Amino acid sequence: MKLYDQIFDIVKQFKKLFAPGPVTNADVSGIVTAEIFLIVSLVLSAILLRHVSVLLAGLVTLILTIVLISNIPLIPKFKIEQDDSLEKMLFYAIVTLAILGVFLYWGGNLV
Amino acid sequence: MNELIPLMVIVPLMAALLISAFSRFNTVTKIFAFVVAICLPIIPIASNYGLHYFGGYEPMLDNVTNVMFHPAITYSFTFLQQIFIAMVGLLTFLVIFIYLTEYKEVSGPYLFLLFLGTAAVTAMLLTDDIFHMFVFFEILALAQVGIVAASSISYSNEMALKYMILGSIGSPMMLLGIGFLLAMTGSVNITDIAAAVHNGLVDITSPVFLMSLALIFFGWLYASGLPPFHTIKSGIYSKAEPHGAALLQSFTVISMISIVLVMFRIYSTLPIFEVLIVFFSILAMILGVSLALTQTDFRRMIGFLAVGELGFIGLGIGLGTQYSITAGLFQALNEITITALLFIGFGAIVNATNEVDTRKLGGLLAYHPKVSIMLLIGGLAMAGVPPLSGFQSKLMLVQASLSCGYPEISILAIVVSIATFVVFVKTYYSMFLKPKPEDLDVEHKEVPRAMIFAMGILLIIVIAFGVYPDVVTDGIANFVGGIL
Known about the structure:
The complex is a heterodimer.
Chain A: H1 2-18, H2 25-47, H3 54-70, H4 75-81, H5 86-106
Helix pairs in contact in A: 2-3
Chain B: H1 4-21, H2 26-46, E1 50-53, E2 60-62, E3 67-69, E4 74-77, H3 79-102, H4 108-126, H5 130-149, H6 156-185, H7 190-198, H8 207-224, H9 230-239, H10 242-267, H11 271-293, H12 298-319, H13 322-353, H14 369-383, H15 389-403, H16 407-433, H17 449-467, H18 470-483
Antiparallel strand pairs in B: 1-4, 2-3
């Protein structure tokens, strides 16, 4: 029952995403799929690190899986960060530019 | 017939200017716009492959170094340019046809923006001059902002302004990167720059060269709508008129491939270049599809799906083999047609219901069976269901990543396709199959015939490319073999 309650709590949190409109079964199914899809795809992507180092890939995959599963529901947090706010868009654009610049300029042998 | 090469840009550009100047003559404007729009897909089909040197300045051979220099702005026209320019020309024709039949009084400035955008993407595909490409990249950005701002949908102006503000970061960075390249090589001709890099005349480990990659790459992310620009890109699609959004997404795809092919020619010697492309493409696939799953506005949902599909194109190019790049470019061609089909089809639904929230829709299969069936096939093509075109390109991408030794990417591509299928089935069920809500007022008016016609043409292409992919992939593979 504990797991059931946990999942039910998560579904209740989804309601906030659709406020003020009603929440339909299709919407909840979509969000649950998105949640599973996000975890699976991020873990799959982390396995790609095996081309750098197998040990690193194993560690990152394990840590990422634990972090993602222990933090569900991810989608509400995720969606808040991806809204139409200009400040957030600018923030992420500048952070990406800075990371790209720093990584390529000081990347050394990695580049 | 090589004189036709510059006409591919000049015709829409002149049409844009003339329509803008004489827009008060409504009937003449309509006839003129229609005739020019018909010419757009015909010119690339009628033209021979070759090069065009503006001003007639032919390449010069340096007898000391035995290197060829290109003093003129050069347009290069091959099968790849032909197929993409013909496709965007056809789409422009369909969009203008829908627009002309939808309104009695047409807007000259709006038609100006549509033709200007088409001219800009055509020039970006043709040019072998990186600064020339940047100029048209800027013109394209302004045309896109104008197309969104001209829409009657609420908050369209705000979204257009946000896109312009973000562009004010992306574009100057790209220009700065081009400036670094010019400083290192003394040329803006892409062939000359690539020759200098591959012949060892430029130190590829130099920080200036690496910074130029970072800056141009950032500009490419903005042009393509890959993360961190995926939110604004899907936003502008959802705020443009549906036919405008169909054209906007084709502009995005073409600017994406034209810039990435230029970067590929210059930076492919750097292993990090392909890693960066694959990283951002995977991010786009994950973000695009997971956010599409959470949408209740179906226009925004397609916007995010379109961003996710861009990831497939990037993936093909990032893997860097002849087969994978061919698959990526074929996927680009398919995305242009499939997404345009979906935007126009869902636009027909907005036209009939004035509603975009899937929670408030339902039972539309009984009212619009033709549109619903065409949308169903379009959605299945996007998800990669055989024998449609999306299936062929996605299968090629899966095979390419397997043969490159990245089974994880193949699995990820399949998972993303399944999630895309879920998004489409969910939306299709909500709009067409579930019982009609009592408070939904469906206007008993027919979907405009121009929209049905446009969807029919796009559907034929989707099925034809699915059944006979070799018609396109052989020519693309030859082009890719030439740049590798």
